[in-house]
Each structure stands twice: as C-alpha cells, then as structure tokens.
C-alpha cells in the first residue's frame, strides 16, 4: 500500500487525533472501550484509525467479527504513536509551566484511604494560597493513579509510598502510625503499648484486593510473625464499611491515624489501642513524573502541604 501524498508531492502527515485513536485501540484491542477512554464516538474512532492506515500506507489492525488484533506493522507503529503522544504531552506541560506557577489546571490523583481525611486541608490550602489554581481531584486506587500519571491523564498524585516505579519521583510529606480498632470490650482496647506480636492471632479485617492499605497491613502482620496461612477476612471496599464490621464484632482492623477521628467518632461500639514504639506506620507523599517541567512548582506545593498538615496526628517529613 503506497503512502498517499499531498498535491505538492510531500507525504501526508498523520494527525494527533488519528494517533490518539490508534493508540487507544492498540491498548484496549476493543473499539468500544477505546472510544470511551478518549471520549470519541465509535464510528469516529474507526474512521480515524482507517484514515491513519491510509495516510501511512500500511494495515495496522486485523479486524474480525469477534476481536481486534494488531498487525506486525501495527505493533511497531503503536510504540511510535505512543512516543509521539507522550512528547506532545510533555510539550504542552512545558508550555503550561512557562506561565505563572499555580495557575491553570492541576489534576491531582488521591487514593481512597487518604482522600476523605487529607482533602479538607488540601482544599483549604489551594483556596487560601493558590486561588488561580484549578484543582481537579480524582480518587482512584494506586494502580489506576500510576497509569493516569504515566499517560498524562493526571499531573500529581497523593498516596502511600514507596512505589518503586521507574520514572516516578516521590516527594515525602509525612509519616503516620497505624492504630488498632476493635470491638468495645476487646482486651487490647485502651492500651498504649500493644506489641506487634499481638497481630499474630487476631481476627483481622482488611480492605479488598487492590487497596495499598491492605498490602501495608499484611506486610505489618508478616513482620510481626503472623503465619501467612492464618486467615484474613476481606469484606470491605472502604474504611467506613470496615469499621462498621469491627463494631459488629467480626474482628479488628488497622486504621491510619488521620482516619481515626472521622471513622470512629460517635460510635460507642468501638475501642482503640496504640502500638508500642516504634509503631507500624505508613509514609504519604506526592508523586510526579520524573523530569516534569512543573517540578519546582510541585516541590513548593509539597512544602506548603507539610505546613498545612502540622495540625494532624502525623510526623511531617522535612523537605
């Protein structure tokens, strides 16, 4: 298939819309899912991909009645197309950063076990200090947030670290301890010196798979010597439900200190206990794409956040 040319004899150039459509199809191998991701109708998406094939003079997809496959040429072009889109995203980010800092849009991704407890402080800070900043908040689990950061859907993340992900830079904010939450008459309630070893045999309730807080809690239990075969009841999609299960006597759970007041207030069926030093803890940080043009802005934002969170039950990590 020969590559089409313009009237002047120059090869035609693919458009960004065509590359974006093809990259979405290459990722999902499904026209409906790809169209939904980039906000394009399915016929328009199909037309854009066909136009790209015509422009490049190669067949990119193998279409059947049941599935979509990449041709050998499509596999190679998909890598190049994503690189072009990433470069364009970096160009737009560079241009945005060239304007006055803390103006325009900031798309902030936050994990569910942080959002309800820290967002009030974040929103007050933005309202009072950065009134020209258009903050857009997206609450998602860690895997989804990292995908959004990598593909330019999100600019900055607020989540638990370490992530251990290449090309992602972490800016630490604070450490916070975990607290044991148990039914009212539990034998560990009210104690301030609970040994980690107590976790070995407790009936432990945790969040569903996919929540980083679940993984952190399991790591703490393993460090405490809990047998990996000791059953863990997993029944809750969120901390509020988890705490209600504890209040119902189904077991105990671990809550980060910032969530404690919100989730246990006005519930007289619960008791809390604190671990002996050093208590199990987690670190919360901002995360950005390494080399981001907005890095100085994000580092200044992190410093302001540390100041805004000094009233919370956390240990601020000095930058």
Describe the structure.
This protein is α/β, with parallel strands linked by helices and about 325 residues long. The chain has 3 domains: about 15-95, Arc Repressor Mutant, subunit A; about 100-175 and about 285-315, 3-Layer(aba) Sandwich (D-Maltodextrin-Binding Protein, domain 2); about 175-280, 3-Layer(aba) Sandwich (D-Maltodextrin-Binding Protein, domain 2), CATH 3.40.190. The chain contains 10 helices and 12 strands. The chain has helices at about 15-30, 30-40, 40-55, 70-100, 115-130, 140-150, 210-225, 240-245, 255-265, 295-310, and strands spanning about 60-65, 70, 105-110, 135-140, 155-160, 170-185, 205, 235, 255, 270-275, 280-290, 315. Strands 3, 4, 5, 6, 9, 10, 11 and 12 form an 8-stranded mixed β-sheet that branches. Helix 1 (about 15-30) packs across helix 3 and helix 1 crosses helix 4 (about 70-100). It is globular. The termini are far apart. The mean pLDDT is about 85.
């Amino acid at each position: 298939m020969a590559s089409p040319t313009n009237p002047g004899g120059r090869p035609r150039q693919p458009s960004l819309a065509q590359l974006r459509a093809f990259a979405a199809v290459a990722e999902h191998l499904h026209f409906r899912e790809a169209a939904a991701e980039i906000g394009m109708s399915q016929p328009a998406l199909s037309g854009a991909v066909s136009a790209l094939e015509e422009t490049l003079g190669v067949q990119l997809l193998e279409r059947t009645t049941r599935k979509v496959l990449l041709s050998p040429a499509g596999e190679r072009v998909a890598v190049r197309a994503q690189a072009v889109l990433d470069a364009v995203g970096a160009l737009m980010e560079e241009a945005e950063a060239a304007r006055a800092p803390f103006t325009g849009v900031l798309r902030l991704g936050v994990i569910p076990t942080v959002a309800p407890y820290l967002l009030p402080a974040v929103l007050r800070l933005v309202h009072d200090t950065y009134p020209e900043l258009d903050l857009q908040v997206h609450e998602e689990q860690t895997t989804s947030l990292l995908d959004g950061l990598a593909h330019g859907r999100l600019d900055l993340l607020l989540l638990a670290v370490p992530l251990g992900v290449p090309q992602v830079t972490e800016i630490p904010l604070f450490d916070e301890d975990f607290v044991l939450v148990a039914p009212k008459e539990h034998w560990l309630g009210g104690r301030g010196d609970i040994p980690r070893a107590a976790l070995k045999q407790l009936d432990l309730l945790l969040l569903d798979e996919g929540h980083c807080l679940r993984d952190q809690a399991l790591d703490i239990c393993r460090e405490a010597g809990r047998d990996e075969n000791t059953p863990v009841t997993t029944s809750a999609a969120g901390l509020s439900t988890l705490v209600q299960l504890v209040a119902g006597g189904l077991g105990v759970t671990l809550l980060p200190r910032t969530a404690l007041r919100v989730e246990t207030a006005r519930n007289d069926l619960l008791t809390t206990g604190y671990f002996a030093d050093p208590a199990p803890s987690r670190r919360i940080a901002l995360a950005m794409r390494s080399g981001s043009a907005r890095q100085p802005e994000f580092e200044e934002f992190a410093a302001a956040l540390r100041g805004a969170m000094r009233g919370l039950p956390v240990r601020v990590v000095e930058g």
